[in-house]
């Protein structure tokens, strides 16, 4: 009997741990707030998203997107926006969508609800002030959600956005990044890449730039078109 109780307790702890791990990091989880990780699976459209910016390297990415006539969604950190307001405005002026990626890009696990709200609110305020837009979308740094995030999102009117594919472009070479995205891209896919490296000044995003330039024509050849996250979430007009 004692052995059975110990085993039962261990199984319960493992189950609870597995649930919490999914709630915190699972792309389909809505435990800590409303969240999506893909768009309409019936339409041949995908969304490129870029995290951690703006950075000194964002302008080069904007030129590539403009050359290919492709819109994207940029999840920006408030402190980077404050540091590079002209770059943030250039993203908005080019017609791209801007989302909130917190103020300073912390992990939220084990943080207080007040800390989480403050991070989202500061990011929201700085983006609105310097880029001239008020985000409706939010991506948690490192994809980590936690208790208190739901209320913060509700207070600020933010929908959480995860991803279907993450390119690992901060650590992988161009060929591997491109191969992964090309392999996994399908209708409604939200792809996560990076135009910054957290709070780093003048980051090297060469792998990201080359991969994006290489992938876009190949994805278009498959009949896929590019949309912002908000567009990819909306059903087609009748």
Please summarize what this structure is.
The protein contains nine helices and nine strands.
List keywords for this structure.
238 residues, 9 strands, alpha/beta, globular, TIM Barrel
Please tell me about this protein's structure:
- The structure is a single chain.
- This protein is an alpha/beta fold and 238 residues long.
- It has two domains: 1-28; 32-233, Glycoside hydrolase/deacetylase (TIM Barrel, Alpha-Beta Barrel), CATH 3.20.20.370.
- It has nine helices and nine strands.
- The protein has helices at residues 2-25, 58-68, 78-83, 85-93, 113-131, 149-156, 174-184, 206-221, 229-233; strands spanning 35-36, 45-53, 73-76, 97-100, 137-138, 159-161, 165-166, 190-194, 225-226.
- Strands 2, 3, 4, 7, 8 and 9 form a six-stranded parallel β-sheet that branches.
- Helix 7 links the parallel strand 7 and strand 8.
- It is globular and about 55 Å long.
- It starts with a helix and ends in a 5-residue tail after the last helix.
- The model has no long low-confidence stretch (mean pLDDT 93).
What is the secondary structure topology, with strand pairs?
Blueprint: H1 2-25, E1 35-36, E2 45-53, H2 58-68, E3 73-76, H3 78-83, H4 85-93, E4 97-100, H5 113-131, E5 137-138, H6 149-156, E6 159-161, E7 165-166, H7 174-184, E8 190-194, H8 206-221, E9 225-226, H9 229-233
Parallel strand pairs: 1-6, 2-3, 2-8, 2-9, 3-4, 5-6, 7-8
């Amino acid at each position: 009997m004692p052995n059975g109780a110990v085993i039962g307790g261990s199984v319960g702890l493992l189950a609870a741990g597995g649930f919490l791990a999914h709630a915190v990091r699972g792309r389909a989880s809505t435990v800590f707030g409303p969240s999506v990780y893909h768009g309409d699976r019936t339409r041949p459209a995908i969304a490129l998203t870029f995290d951690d910016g703006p950075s000194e390297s964002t302008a080069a990415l904007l030129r590539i997107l403009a050359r290919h006539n492709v819109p994207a969604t940029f999840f920006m950190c408030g402190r980077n926006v404050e540091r590079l307001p002209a770059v943030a405005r250039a993203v908005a002026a080019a017609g791209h969508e801007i989302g909130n990626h917190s103020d300073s890009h912390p992990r939220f696990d084990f943080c207080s609800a007040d800390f989480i709200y403050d991070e989202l609110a500061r990011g929201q305020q700085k983006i609105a002030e310097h880029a001239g837009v008020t985000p409706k979308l939010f991506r948690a740094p490192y994809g980590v959600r936690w208790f208190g995030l739901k209320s913060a999102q509700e207070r600020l009117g933010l929908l959480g956005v995860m991803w279907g594919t993450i390119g690992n472009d901060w650590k992988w070479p161009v060929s591997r990044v491109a191969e992964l995205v090309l392999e996994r891209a399908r209708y409604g896919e939200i792809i996560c890449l990076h135009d910054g490296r957290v709070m780093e000044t003048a980051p090297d995003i060469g792998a990201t730039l080359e991969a994006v330039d290489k992938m876009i024509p190949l994805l278009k050849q498959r009949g896929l078109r590019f949309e912002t996250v908000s567009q990819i979430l909306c059903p087609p007009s009748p």
